[in-house]
Structure formats: C-alpha cells, structure tokens
Design a protein that fits this description.
Mean pLDDT: 78
Structural class: mainly alpha
Number of helices: 6
Strand content: 5-15%
Order of helices and strands: HHHEHHHEE
Strand order of the largest sheet: 1-3-2
Shape: elongated
Radius of gyration: 16 Å
Number of domains: 1
Low-confidence stretches: 99-116
Length: 116
C-alpha cells in the first residue's frame, strides 16, 4: 500500500492530468463536452438538464414530441446520465445523491489535457 501511495503524483495538477489522460481516447471529446457543459452552467445542473444538453443529435429536439416526461422517463434519463457522468469524468465530476452535478475541486481542474 505504501508503494501505491508513493506512486501518486506530488501535486494536484499532475494528478488531474494523469486522471484525464486515463480517459479512453474514443471518449475524450465527449468527456470534454460534458466538462464544458458543467463548467459553463450558470449554477448547479440537474442530471436531467445535463442529459438533454448532452444530446448529440442536433435534429433530436426538432423532431421530438413535446410533452411532459413521466416520472419513469425522468428516472431513466437521470440514471443514464449519472452513469455517463461517472464513466466520462473518471471521478472529477461528482453526482451527489440529490441528483445535481458539479465539478469537485473546480478551481484546480485543468482542461488542457482534454485537447488531444
């Protein structure tokens, strides 16, 4: 266990860079998109808002039926986005039990490693 502790980076920038570099290259662009949505949000974002903002198909909202979502549909979308955030952020975004998303340690997170 002591060896693992010594293997950790000495400072937070290095640690965050290592975490971001561990994001699969296939998902880096999508991860960057989610980080940017959360960063640019005016306040804390609900997972439901983030789910809709993260939609990749620009035609989706033009063609979708406008109606209230059932509680089951909301729950499904929230759970989907919760898994998506956890997978894409490698723990840098936290999903509290009240279903809000925010960047933990947001002032220390550098997004430069996501450019690749």
């Amino acid at each position: 266990m002591e060896e693992r502790l010594h293997a950790l980076p000495a400072d937070l920038d290095e640690l965050f860079t290592r975490i971001l570099e561990n994001i699969d290259p296939l998902y880096r662009e999508h991860s960057s998109h989610v980080f940017q949505l959360v960063r640019d949000g005016r306040s804390l974002l609900s997972l439901l808002c983030l789910y809709f903002a993260d939609e990749e198909d620009p035609e989706f909202y033009i063609n979708c039926e406008v109606r209230p979502l059932s509680d089951e549909e909301k729950h499904l979308r929230v759970e989907t986005m919760k898994r998506r955030v956890n997978n894409l952020s490698k723990g840098l975004l936290e999903v509290p039990s009240i279903a809000l998303v925010y960047i933990s340690l947001s002032n220390s997170v550098s997004f430069s490693a996501m450019k690749d």
